[in-house]
Specification:
By secondary structure, the chain is mainly alpha-helical. 59% of the residues lie in helices and 0% in strands. The protein has helices at residues 7-39, 46-62, 68-75, 79-91, 93-107, 109-132, 149-153, 177-192, 203-214, 220-236.
């Protein structure tokens, strides 16, 4: 079939595509900036953050959750292992999410809009909780008897003195967006791809959970709350327009070339 697209039309399409890309980049960067600025609003609530930390610690013990120290002891078997975990915590979170969104934008645009909206809802809900419930992470809680692996072994994304850290709010432990974003990345890739091995994307949030707990940056309940907020976001943002192929327990993609199912004779109306 011969294309009727003129050179001028093709150039206009390319310009429109560039404008859309720039708009999306500015939107995502703007949302991230608002989130980072918003988190800093609760940096001065130190006493409240430590009171909440004690409550979370007691609640986890009442729920018979395993101590975060049981995970950290696995990391502390070797300097290289704990250093790798700190590096994963510091260097994977944002780049992995950015690459996820870029890949969806280029290859699965319908899935991109859905994933971006879910992440916006999740992040907005997380920001509201950060402001309403400041929480010191377990590495700061004396009762936890945990090592601040970032400060001891490096690298660390936080300043040594939380009260004077102007780059990050260290009292915004709940929910864990490291885990929430990682879980959305896995679910989004499972939904947007096909193949028998796509469930392996779930290894990313599993490893992230191991890292955030083992480095004493988050409690178990931080991840639980992140998962609950993500579940609510997924209910609020339906996956319209993103065709899917069924997979046990999860929706997935449908090839654009898949022919529609035949309509039985006499069923047309």
């Amino acid at each position: 079939m011969t294309s009727h697209t003129t050179p001028a039309g093709a150039a206009a399409d390319r310009r429109a595509a560039r404008r859309r890309l720039i708009r999306e980049l500015l939107l995502v960067a703007g949302l991230f900036t608002v989130y980072k600025a918003g988190r800093m609003l609760s940096t001065g609530r130190t006493e409240e953050a430590f009171r909440n930390a004690a409550r979370i610690w007691d609640a986890e013990r009442a729920l018979l959750l395993p101590g975060e120290g049981s995970v950290q002891r696995l990391l502390l078997h070797g300097d290289a292992l704990v250093h790798t975990a700190n590096t994963y915590y510091a260097a994977v979170h944002f780049p992995a999410t950015a690459l996820f969104l870029i890949w969806l934008y280029l290859r699965r645009p319908d899935h991109y809009l859905w994933a971006r909206r879910v992440l916006v809802v999740l992040t907005g809900a997380a920001l509201a909780l950060h402001l309403a419930f400041p929480l010191a992470p377990p590495r700061m809680l004396g009762a936890a008897h945990l090592v601040d692996t970032g400060q001891v072994y490096g690298p660390s994304v936080y300043g040594a003195a939380p009260a004077t850290d102007t780059m990050a709010n260290q009292f915004a432990a709940m929910p864990s967006l490291h885990f929430g974003w990682a879980l959305m990345l896995a679910l989004g890739m499972i939904a947007a791809t096909s193949g028998r091995w796509r469930a392996l994307w779930l290894l990313h949030p599993a490893l992230t959970l191991f890292v955030v707990v083992g480095t004493a940056n988050h409690y178990w309940l931080d991840a639980v709350v992140a998962a609950l907020l993500l579940g609510a976001a997924l209910l609020l943002v339906p996956r319209r327009g993103a065709a899917a192929t069924p997979v046990p327990g999860l929706p997935g993609p449908r090839s654009a070339t898949t022919a529609p199912a035949p309509v039985p004779a006499g069923a047309e109306r």
